[in-house]
């Protein structure tokens, strides 16, 4: 009798598991019969992508909050003191606008640090600080000449100098193009998963394959789907590479070095290249960020910048 008492709970457990398995199998078959299985898998793909994006946005929001706190609480930094990391990062984000070459050229810049992803970050050459650059040259009476490039460079946390150089204009897809690519990838992933299940379980679920011929047909269908998606992505990559090559070919190099201006309202310095012959440059934040807590520029740093500028201009 004691042995029977020990067996009864096991029978109940196995019975419950069997019922759950039967329900799961029945649910899967019902989904297949109604054509809903694919819809469910597509929704799962979408939710996984959204979850990953939301996690990234949460991480970036936490970084931004810390940077804003650093901006709000930072006191004036003395000459020779190291600039705090978070405060420096906060100055190297967002939109900046201004002019160069005695206001002959208007400039708009977007900046981001390496650990603070912006919409353009993955499309520009990597650097400690990256960005986009757009200038309009009003030196002629005709239509203003537009100069668009990427940017990469570094910020000196000891001297407060931001040094950037031009990189090829980033090829950034539109929101519609991104969504379409996600749609195509999701559909391909689901079709491949369903075809793989067909190879593994057969057309009648997890009870076995109907025939050798059916196995071969299912395997060929799976291989065809995988090949089609591989070729589609390759063609997409080649199309993008052509656009990147064109952007590299049209790049006219330049660089600029900027520090806080004397009023602490923004940045000022020099920009040099074929389109900017040793010009001055001034920038102010569109978000109202100021540089007044940065240390004033020293004579030593100013001399180094002047020497560097003279060297660049002579090239």
Can I get a quick summary?
The chain is α+β, with helices and mostly antiparallel strands.
Q: Helices, strands, pairings?
A:
Layout: H1 2-34, H2 37-73, H3 85-91, E1 94-100, E2 105-113, E3 129-137, E4 145-155, E5 162-167, H4 175-201, H5 212-249, E6 255-260, E7 266-273, E8 276-285, H6 299-314
Antiparallel strand pairs: 1-2, 1-8, 2-3, 3-4, 4-5, 5-6, 6-7, 7-8
Describe this structure in words.
The protein has 315 residues and is of the alpha+beta class. It has three domains: 2-59, no CATH class; 74-169 and 251-314, Lipocalin (Beta Barrel); 175-249. The protein contains six helices and eight strands, in the order H-H-H-E-E-E-E-E-H-H-E-E-E-H. It has helices at 2-34, 37-73, 85-91, 175-201, 212-249, 299-314, and strands at residues 94-100, 105-113, 129-137, 145-155, 162-167, 255-260, 266-273, 276-285. The chain has an eight-stranded antiparallel barrel with strand order 1-2-3-4-5-6-7-8. Strand 4 (145-155) and strand 5 (162-167) form a beta hairpin. Helix 2 (37-73) crosses helix 4 (175-201). The longest helix has 38 residues, at 212-249.
